[in-house]
Amino acid sequence: MATINVRQLDDDVVNRLKWRASLNNRSLEGEVRNILERFADDDMTTKRTAFLAASDLLRQKTKGRKQTPAEVLIREDRNRGHREDR
Questions:
Q1: DSSP for 18-35?
Q2: Closest Cα partner for 14 from 34, 38, 31?
Q3: What one-character DSSP code corresponds to residue 77?
Q4: Residue 1 placed within a domain
């Protein structure tokens, strides 16, 4: 296994990591390892698959219901005085 040294971390970052570690009943090293492992495993294929599954479920639940097109909702909002550029 490899070893990584991280230098010049802000004290506040280290304190927050220690706090997270204590909440998760881990050492500081264990918490950092967990964060790095989760981040490294976070690939877009998994996210895309989950998104598509959630979209399909929502589509099934709303099937047959009348849908208002987004452009109609945006126009109504703008007509009430709400704008994106304000």
A1: HHHHHHTT--HHHHHHHH
A2: 31
A3: H
A4: no
6 part of a folded domain: no
Q: What is the pLDDT along the chain (86 residues), one digit of tens a residue?
A: 899 999 999 999 999 999 999 999 999 999 999 999 888 877 777 888 899 999 999 999 999 999 899 999 999 999 988 766 65
Task: Specify the amino acid at residue 23.
Answer: L
Closest to 32 measured CA to CA, from 5, 72, 70 = 5
| Structure tokens given for 60 | 């099934």
Residue 23 lies in a domain: yes
Residues recorded for the chain:
86
> d(Cα 9, Cα 37) in Å, to the nearest integer?
19
Place of tokens 């849908």: 67
